[in-house]
Design goal:
This protein is α+β, with helices and mostly antiparallel strands. The chain has helices at residues 22-35, 57-68, 101-110, 123-131; strands spanning 5-14, 39-45, 48-56, 73-83, 95-97, 136-137. It has four helices and six strands, in the order E-H-E-E-H-E-E-H-H-E. It has a six-stranded mixed β-sheet, with helices on both faces. The protein is globular, with a radius of gyration of 14 Å. Bound molecules: flavin-adenine dinucleotide.
């Protein structure tokens, strides 16, 4: 049975940012996502993690639940979860989104102020903002 292609967006607050090994976090995410054909993007913006997960409904659910139990973040808020026709991050097991000056300027396109507050951003705007390809740090998929 084919599982519906699903896209989930959440944001959360980083816990003890200075103690997090971000390289290790990303490497684990990529390794695990590859096993279940999940793709997506992760943005560390100020105190927030903002993440897009996409893939089968089952694997998006399982992975999101695992991520929710991770002590490296808290106050996890689900922005949206919906069936989609195609992936927004098909080329990345987990793209790392950087806050560059250009990206900072791009925030105003989707927001009332230049300060990004994910609480006031709808699902599609967050995905569009994260997706602007020129702002995504290249992270090549292996294999
Ligand atoms: P294990 O690696 O065996 O870890 C066991 C427990 O310890 C889990 O509760 C885990 O959350 C926690 N843990 C693991 N490493 C650390 C550490 N260095 N410091 C503190 N606690 C730790 N996983 C994915 O598969 N895909 C993703 O896209 C993904 N994105 C993530 C985004 C964020 C913002 C965060 C915080 C985590 C993300 N993870 C992701 C990691 C995920 O939470 C699990 O740690 C990972 O999937 C490994 O799960 P595991 O069952 O093998 O647990």
């Amino acid at each position: 049975m084919k599982s519906q292609l699903t896209q989930l967006v959440y944001y959360s607050k980083v816990v003890n940012s200075a103690e997090i090994d971000y390289e290790n976090l990303l490497a684990t995410a990529i390794r695990r996502n590859k096993e279940t054909y999940l793709t997506g993007a992760l943005w560390l913006h100020g105190d927030y993690f903002i993440q897009v997960l996409e893939g089968s409904r089952l694997h998006v659910s399982e992975t999101y639940q695992r991520i929710c139990g991770d002590p490296r973040h808290e106050d996890i808020v689900l922005v949206g979860c919906k069936t989609v026709d195609e992936r927004s991050f098909a080329d990345w097991w987990m793209a790392l989104v950087m806050t560059t000056p250009k990206k900072q300027a791009e925030i105003l396109r989707y927001s009332g102020t230049p300060v990004l507050d994910p609480e006031f951003m709808p699902h599609d705007s967050l995905v569009a903002l994260m997706r602007s390809e020129e702002f995504i740090a290249p992270h090549m998929q292996e294999g």
